[in-house]
Amino acid sequence: MKLTRPIALLGSLLVAVSIVIPLTANGATTEDEQFVIPINSTTPSYHEIVYQETIPELDVFPHLFALNNGARYICTSTTSANCANADEYDYTSIFPICANSSDNDCIESLSSTSASGVESPGSFQQYTIPNHINLFSPNTSMNLPHTQTPSLWSLPDAAHQFGTQYALDVGIEGSYRADGRNNTQQLFAYLVPVSQQDVPVQDPQRPYAACIQNPNPPNGIVNTSCTSVYSSDKVVCALDMGTAGSCLLRHAFPAGFTYKVKIRVSHEPTAWIHGRMTDPNIAISPLSGGGVSISVSAAPVQIPSIYQGGTWSSLPTSVQNFWLACRNGADCGAVTGLNYTDPEDQRITEAPMPGYGSQALNGIRIIAPLLGDKAAAAPSAWSFHTLPSNQLTSANSCFTNGPGVKGIVTTNSTAYSEGPPSFDGTKLNYQVASPHFNPDGTTPFKGTYNLVIRSDVARCLYGFSNAPISASISVVSADGSNDVATTAVGEKNGWLSLSAANFEFSSPTISVKLSQAATKKTTIVCVKGKLSKSVSGINPACPSGYKKK
Question: Contact 326/340 with Cβ under 8 angstroms?
Fold first, then answer.
């Protein structure tokens, strides 16, 4: 992994129920990208747990919310009716294509590079929904950028099974308060091979994912109603298209390619970046008019998906306890269902598990043995995002203090540690968890892990001098044995890069230990005419006018 300047980015299990995966757009063999979760939303007391890497449903279209006294309004600007002088604003701004050299918060280019090293530029075709009803005006005083909808590109030299079209969704989600509290921004980017597919129209008034004002809320508090991208038991859409009854199907990346996205942002990202990619190369450079240019090049990875479900009485005690932990406040994603306030044995509910955190890791340890320790599907992905502040609350201060990106961590594991690696005073530790096998049940799933940490941050953690740093990386299985993995370590241009690959699951810990060669003081004799003096130090040098004897 290479960075050119000091700045600096789900596992698998056997499904325990019958799953019917549809054919893709032209009737070819179904890809894992079209794996359909077998939702059992009408079976009494049915509980299901899902691990699946997707684009968050509110990151696929722009929107601006104004929060006032418990009410939430959808806005076209920060000065429109009900939106001026709000207590707080929440938003997602999706980057348009850069129109000229002075533009910021925009996409500059997309390209692919073949296994032989030939880079080919992509060509922008159109926005998915250029006249989306939730487009809003920018506000520079709030760092609220202008917005569009995800863009469609053609990469003719990186054709996938269903064509040359790719969707690129890059943007910023954030919040703003006039008093300065809770002002956050997260940068995100998702690249997806796609093809267009006709689908049934869900709502003639809102045929694509969008938010509208609820004029008559049942509790009297003004709120918004948002729909998500179309999906069914026949197709899984990555993004909606502007034409009513049309969406973009997600497909597998072709083998042997890396992809580079180049963007401009008005403010350099801070803290940590997490990625669903491997061997990333990142370059960040200042722009003459302010802001920075960010170039990210990496190969996609496959991320196993997990599904487990059953009626409450049929669930093992370990899974029931998992659900009770969700009910008592553990992070199990946006748990949804019917009879949600009733006792567990009467509820119908689904937990779309986040990919990070102790509950996500624990869930895989519990569920994997019940499912033959194999994946339901292993779709490919290429994405990165800056970590939100709630994933950094327990991070070492060396990871959070000061401006700029401190490091990047990428993995193809289903679940992973929250935030940056933890530091125990000796080692940097990072927990990952996935099922042991791919969907075929026989081929072991091979893990990848990349860590790039700024050299000055590493020295902060260990109290090192400016002397060179060396490092070792190990993958330790849950039983304490060392896993066989391919590892690489290097320091260049102010960054320390480490990687591990080809290790196996279910729940290993990846540990990095940094060290610095012991230094000894030496003494030299310096002379100036008849004068002489001794100088001691780690790298002693003679004073001006003196020469070493």
Answer: no
212, 233, 264: which is the final residue of a domain? 264
| Integer Cα distance of 438 and 293 in angstroms | 38
Q: What pLDDT was estimated at residue 280?
A: 86
Structural domain range at position 243: 57-264
Start-end of H helices in 420-480? 455-462
Residue 542 lies in a domain: yes
Please state, in angstroms and rounded to a whole number, the distance separating the CA atoms of residues 420 and 549: 50
Q: Examine the domain organization and report whether 18 and 62 are in the same domain.
A: no
* pLDDT of 18 strictly over 60: no
Q: Kindly report the pTM of this predicted structure.
A: 0.85
Residues 321 and 368 in one domain: yes
Which residues have C-beta within 8 Å of that of residue 10, sequence separation ≥ 6? 51, 52, 53, 303, 304, 305, 306, 355, 414, 415
Mean pLDDT, residues 384-390: 79
With a CB cutoff of 8 Å and minimum separation 6, the contacts of 299 are 257, 258, 259, 277, 278, 279, 382
Closest residue by Cα to residue 136 from 69, 79, 184, 189: 79
Q: In the chain, how many H helices and how many E strands?
A: 4, 36
| 193-220: average pLDDT | 83
Token representation of residue 193: 């091979």
DSSP 333: S
How far apart, in whole angstroms, are the C-alpha atoms of residue 36 and residue 211?
25
Residue ranges with strand state E in 266-397: 271-276, 278-286, 292-299, 301-302, 306-311, 336-338, 348-352, 380-386
pLDDT tens for 45-74 read: 999 999 999 898 889 999 999 998 888 999
Number of domains into which the chain is organized = 3
> 358-367 and 317-327 helices cross at what angle (nearest 10)?
160
Please state, as a whole number, how many other Cβ atoms lie within 10 Å of the Cβ of residue 256: 11
As a whole number, mean pLDDT of residues 164-178 equals 94
* Max CA pair span of the chain: 99
With a cut of 80, say whether residue 388 has pLDDT above it. Answer: no
Maximum average pLDDT range among 87-91, 347-351, 496-500: 87-91
Pairing type for strands 422-423 and 427-433 reads: antiparallel
- Which whole-number Å values give the CA distances from 143 to 39, 65, 119, in the listed order? 40, 15, 34
Token pair 């990555």 is found at 238
Tell me the pLDDT band of 518, cut-offs 50, 70 and 90. low
Q: What's the pLDDT score for residue 200?
A: 84
What are phi and psi for residue 3, nearest 5 degrees?
Answer: -130, 140
CA-CA distance, 43 to 117, in Å (whole number)?
Answer: 52
Give Cα separations from 101 to 61, 105, 107, 120, 290 (angstroms): 25, 12, 11, 21, 12
| Percent of the chain residues past pLDDT 70, beyond the cut | 91
Listed in sequence order, the residues at least 6 apart from 127 whose beta carbon sits closer than 8 Å to its beta carbon are: 96, 148, 149, 150, 151, 152, 242
Considering the domain architecture, whether residues 119 and 252 belong to the same structural domain is answered as yes
